[in-house]
Write a structure and sequence with these properties.
Helix content: 10-25%
Radius of gyration: 28 Å
Signal peptide: 1-17
Largest sheet: 4 strands, antiparallel
CATH architecture of the domain at 62-190 and 246-382 and 424-489: Alpha-Beta Complex
Shape: globular
InterPro entries: CTDL_fold (IPR016187), Sulfatase_Mod_Factor_Kinase (IPR051043), SUMF_dom (IPR005532), SUMF_sf (IPR042095)
Protein name: Gliding motility-associated lipoprotein GldJ/gliding motility-associated lipoprotein GldJ,TIGR03530
GO molecular function, one term: formylglycine-generating oxidase activity
Keywords: Lipoprotein, Signal
């Protein structure tokens, strides 16, 4: 009897231990704050939500460009005697840039959306965005077919869009940012697809308005699900915030430094680039390449043996009156811009950083910019903005559904140590500190609306194919040789997804 009772007592003890252990297994564990010890994401402890570490996904059409240092500026003799690209060393943070130039079909998609949403209420929005097809006209050339067909005909779908001003290109970037983030929210079940059919001018999705709580969208399936991580402590659904890591940064025009760095693609010169965590490539001295392709950076033709030997690596004008060569042996097979994925990509996988069309970049043009250049993420053109609040302290939308912004008051800038005014486009070159003035249209063709153009085009001689060359045009003007591509900020590791920021060493043991 005693043996049996002992056996039953042992079984009961084992069952109790199993019950407690199973309860501990099913108990939800929360990440704790390293500074307070409080739980993250626990509704009983306030519900402060912290998203798990997420790596930035690559937006549609983009390629990753790992940043670094390089010598920006001229790589050959300044035959134009402009002295506007004096070499200087700068560092560029990692970023994303379009694999190709924006094509006609992409811009027509943009126009279709504008007409569908604003066509009835604000038709001028659509009309303002139309590219200028008259840029193809010339007094002494028969280019009327290009005026009529280049932008509209399906044969030119994937040719780069031209006749677009800097202002129109910037507006396209804003529209693209909103459409990409809207789709991310729909794919995640936060918003419903039915909003696409019901979009109106007074309630259109824009990223800024959504984050400010001013967009009235229809919740998707995940938004109302109890499994959704995006809920308030009381269980009600909430809007996504940027801290959730789901939304992407805005598309924008690349800076001049970013564009030139991406064009040169010095990563292709490294014979042993870093492939995995803990291993790195060698830091090499960069060759001053003339052209942006890696197979023959000092020449215009493919030197590899085979079918492509001797072929031109870009679309350009070989000489006066020679835009494509002789029948039966066309040298670059394109008299005007070619499809955006033609010719040889550089080491980053980016197409047509020389030839095809020149491209708008974000910078304001100054001739002696190299003398003022910041060594880190150089950019001239900052106008610091602030979100507008009405007298009640509330955010507001404009007629296009975008969050209202204003130029930051100088009273705020005056309190800063790192800048003293909001509009610094002419900083040290055109402002009162520099003692330089630009009388636009009188003594100069430059003002604060003059933007930089990079890269040679289909109608340029080889000199302009070098990424270090630079030209300019007013931001409200357009040309049949100028297009654009978009860029995006990179957040997180500078080496890319799968890598950490900084060097991590094995922690040494403490001595007793």
């Amino acid at each position: 009897m005693r043996t049996r009772s002992v056996f039953l007592w042992m079984c009961a003890g084992a069952a109790t231990a199993l019950m407690f252990s199973s309860c501990s297994l099913f108990k939800k564990k929360y990440e704790k704050s390293a500074v307070t010890g409080w739980d993250y994401n626990n509704p009983k402890w306030g519900g402060f939500y912290v998203a798990k570490n997420k790596e930035q996904q690559t937006g549609p059409g983009l390629v990753f460009v790992q940043g670094g240092t390089f010598t920006m500026g001229a790589t050959e003799q300044d035959v134009m005697y402009q002295w506007n690209n004096i070499p200087r060393r700068v560092t560029v943070s990692s970023f994303y840039i379009d694999e190709t130039e924006v094509a006609n079909v992409h811009y027509r998609e943009y126009l279709y959306w504008l007409n569908r949403v604003f066509g009835q209420t604000y038709p001028q929005v659509y009309l303002k965005a139309l590219p200028d097809t008259l840029v193809w006209r010339s007094e002494l050339a028969y280019n009327e077919p290009l005026v009529e067909y280049y932008f509209r005909h399906p044969a030119y779908n994937y040719y780069p869009v031209v006749g677009v001003t800097w202002e129109q290109a910037s507006d396209f970037c804003k529209w693209r940012s909103d459409r990409v983030n809207e789709k991310l929210l729909i794919d995640a079940g936060i918003l419903s697809m039915q909003d696409i059919d019901n979009e109106q001018a007074d309630n259109v999705f824009t990223t800024g308005a959504y984050l400010a709580g001013l967009y009235e969208g229809t919740p998707g399936k995940m938004a109302n699900s109890r499994k959704s991580p995006y809920r308030n402590p009381d269980g009600t659904p909430r809007n996504i915030t940027f801290e959730d890591g789901l939304l992407l940064p805005n598309y924008r025009l690349p800076t001049e430094a970013e564009w030139e760095y991406a064009a040169l693609a010095y990563i292709g010169e490294n014979p042993n680039p870093s492939r995995k965590e803990g291993k790195r490539g060698e830091e090499l001295i960069m060759n001053r390449e003339i052209y942006p392709w890696s197979i023959n950076p000092s020449g215009l033709r493919d030197q590899r043996r085979g079918n492509f030997e001797g072929q031109f690596l870009a679309n350009f004008k070989r000489g006066l009156g020679d835009n494509m060569g002789i029948a039966g042996g066309l040298n670059d097979r394109a008299s005007i811009p070619a499809p955006v994925k033609s010719f040889y990509p550089n080491a980053f996988g980016i197409y047509n950083m020389a030839g095809n069309v020149s491209e708008w970049v974000a910078d304001v043009y100054r001739q002696l910019t190299p003398l003022d250049a910041d060594g880190f993420n150089y950019f001239r053109g900052n106008v610091f903005m602030d979100v507008y609040r009405n007298p009640q302290g509330e955010f507001e939308k404009d007629s296009l559904g975008r969050l209202k912004k204003i130029v930051e008051p100088d009273s705020i800038a005056a309190k800063q140590l790192n800048y003293q005014r909001a509009d610094v486009r002419d900083y040290l070159d055109g402002d009162s500190l520099s003692g330089v003035t630009y009388g636009y249209g009188i003594t100069s063709l430059i003002n604060n609306e003059t933007r930089v153009i990079k890269g040679g085009s289909w109608n340029d001689l080889p000199y302009w194919l070098s990424p270090g060359t630079r030209r300019y045009m007013q931001q409200n003007m357009a040309s049949n040789t100028v297009g654009f591509r978009c860029a995006m900020d990179r957040v997180g590791s500078q080496e890319g997804n799968g890598f950490r920021t900084g060097n991590y060493f094995r922690q040494p043991r403490q001595k007793r």
